[in-house]
Fold this protein.
Amino acid sequence: MLYCQRCKVSLADGASRCPLCLGPSAETLGDRSGEVAAAPEDRARVSIARDIWNAEDGSRLSFAERRKIVMELLTVSFAFALVITLALDALFVPGLSWSLYVSVILVLVWIFSFMPLAFWGHPWLLLSVLGPALPLGLIAWGLCIGSLSWFLPVGLPIVIAFESVAISVLVLLHVMKSHGLNIPAVILVGLGVLCVGIDVPVHYAIAGIWGLSWSLVVAFSVFPVAGLFFYLHYRILKKASLRKLFRLLVFPLL
Amino acid sequence: MANIKIPSGSKDSFWPLDNSAVFMASISNHSTPYMFRVSCELDDIVHLPALEEALSRCMARFPSFATELRVGVFWYYLEPLSKPLHVTVDTRYPVEYHSLRKQGRHLVRVRAYASRISCEFHHLLTDGTGALEFLRALVAEYLTLRGVSCEDWEGIKKPDSPVLPGELSDSYAELPLGKAPLPESLSPAFHLSGERYSGLAYRVTSGTLSVAETLSVARAHGVTLTELLAACYLAALQDIHEAETHAEWRPIRVQVPVNIRRFFPSETIRNFFLFITVTIDRRLGHWVFPEILERVRDEFRLNLTRKELCRQIRRNGRWERSLYTRLVPLAVKNPVLKLVASLSADRPFSGNVSNLQAVRMPAPFAAHIKRFDVLPSRSRGIGANMGVISWNDALSITVGNILTSREFERIFFRRLSGLGLSVRVESNE
């Protein structure tokens, strides 16, 4: 009689493998009484099976396999969109015009969606690829519009500010042990700093002097709110003792 | 929604979902997959070809189980599925999520492991009574194929017997809504807190007791077996609530599914159940066990009446039968139901005790059966749910818990031991 050691069920005569787990070939046992004697432990523990091999795990795709599929799908989809865009533009207008802008955006979106998957688990490599991608994208955009004069005074400082803030926010969120209202607080602080980073080069480009204007209003608005969120998160929601913090009770000295 | 009379077997045959299934189809997800399991342990290892054959015959006898869920414009519906259902391998963490979006999938799984046959149903297909009917028929047919001879199947549905129209009917739809006042809304209840398992893990802890011993203890306290277990459940939850550091007391409320076929006669093997709730309000102070027993017994008596059940029937049925609701597309209904579920499905309840009562099988089959078990669905919000079933003198109490802490199981089973009951406990973790 054929028997599967994993599923512990008897199989049809001549079966080469267990149809349930598709595992190793079924073992041939002797008569049924011998079989019972062979696995007394299993029979005693059948009501709760803690040693079951989880067959679904075998049929599921691993994370790496799923990542690979998503990367392939992303690449094919963006390549398809890129080709269609360029072809449509070339079809109706001689030469390439608007499709260049769309192409720059498509390539940037592809890089920012593909690279995190490609460099999963290697943050420094990812950073080294994504870091230059945005300035290079802006240069490509400048080439499309035929002018790069804005890039160094305005474009590059804003990109550097954006990337610095984004990396800082992500690192901070990563190192924070508890997550709650501190997440919007960190994002708000990041937005405030980013606004300053945008305001300074823009102000210089327009007025010709270093200074701050509208970003001060933003900063004065968001920083107190972020502070309130930090306070709520770390002192209230985490159930910090306000009595201890503010000494609300005076205990008699013994 | 009234039953739609489409001849079974015709190309256009389908079944509209019953009242409770409408809700479950919309809100079913990984956290609350609404999959539950009934299983039977035999005295010998399962012979797979015989089980496959028995399953094939039984699926023909239970046509509403040989279906898949399809999306209509206004409602989901069940459509017959011609592809055969096969036995699948068992798993350490059962009743896992069963995606409803994949087409061509049965809403039931039959699993085999050693001498155990398990059927896992999506709750939109049937309730515990229907699931048990199917399992009994499957086991009887399997044992027959294995050479066990039995003349009188004592009400178990033989595969070659005709399908009665009443078995497939939506019995909720046949109930008059009446003018009964709606049930009172329930305040948020205490919930077990703590870390939940991630992924597929689901701790199953099974306690086995003697039915006779447990019944004698229950009778000594003047309650039924279900009432005794519900009281122990509440007492365990109260102990945990009191052990927690914060002192914001909440009501502790357990819901008990009730088979309403005895109040509203029906042959259906689809869903036909309602809930009654038993509550101890910790805001009133600590409840000693005799007080809890008294409270549970009285709430059962008060709530388990036809008149009280009519209030729930009207609440559940009126929105579904409303013309406005029927005209709203399913794409709009789904998010609304999800929102309603997130606000009200688990919030008023601290736990769930589902007792499928005693299983009966004809003597020739019974000689080959060791036990039955029932495992309730996972519920991320509630945490621990309990399923109870008895076979001969074996009372099986299975706690399915998504919490990593074993505190609830420890306190619950210790309380049963404290009542003088001998409990054998085992777990998959």
